[in-house]
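Example 286.
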Amino acid sequence: MHKIESVGIVGSGTMGLGIAQVCALHGFEVHMTDISPTLVAKGVDTISERLAREVSRGRMTQDDSEAAANRVKAEEGIEDLANCDLVIEAIVESLESKLSLFQRLGAICKPEAVLASNTSSLSISQLAGASGRPASVLGMHFFNPPSALHLLELTTTPQTDASKTAAVEAFCEALNREVVRVKDTPGFIVNRLLIPFIFDAVRLADTGVAEPADIDIACKSGLGHSMGPLATADLIGLDTLVQIGNALFEDFGEPRFKPPVILGRMVSLGNLGRKSGTGFFQYRGS
Ligand code: NAD
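Predicted structure in complex with nicotinamide-adenine-dinucleotide:
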């Protein structure tokens, strides 16, 4: 069976950093890249800071934290991922960008490498086709933040090689993921249910039915959710949320998947949620 020891991650945003941190903590060598070396260098620093915080909270030893941080390498470009056993794509949720990336990954990566996408809503089959080696491609949908949420939606296509799937399943076990298998369908399981729910919460806030804080309190206290839908929107990132909604709406054509207009306006103003410091709520030190 193909054994996964080194992991390439493309995209050092919200998810790329979280996935890199989890892989490094579980002993895997991580090679990370983004559109610019500055962004990746910043990402590697963020991971070191997060791991150092775990030490100050008493959750990890200094040695373990440093060892994990040293396993994450900033790379100049995707050519530097050519020898990785698994490459996980975590770039912006744009079909065009992902298709072009998979085409390049297919040309660059070693023949036995597994190519995975962390997409929330786009078609794994389309990415597999673009790569020119569909047997190597599958979907690994991590949850945000990967350090706390262990679910992973695993998507294969009819052409995915069974030995690649087995290698990824073993890798997921090593990362302590709870794997659910789901067909290649937009939004998989969780986002198919979650996105319309979040959009309804946004509409409640936007039409003045209730304040954002009260909507979230209602869902936490009344439904037992650990996080309210609007705090979840801020955590996902409002730009990513709009892209996911647009992709689901395009595929299903159902109005419930259409992003409320207010979300696009917030994104235009740079209010992206946690990552920008302002969304439905305010965040410090993000
Ligand atoms: P993000 O905006 O935080 O980060 C995206 C990163 O990709 C940025 O650093 C950007 O510079 C980089 N990038 C864009 N185009 C690139 C390219 N061509 N090559 C290399 N790097 C590129 O986005 P995110 O929230 O991390 O989402 C990334 C992916 O993960 C998306 O497919 C999204 O749907 C999925 N996802 C997001 C969440 C979430 O809660 N945010 C959860 C699960 C999955």
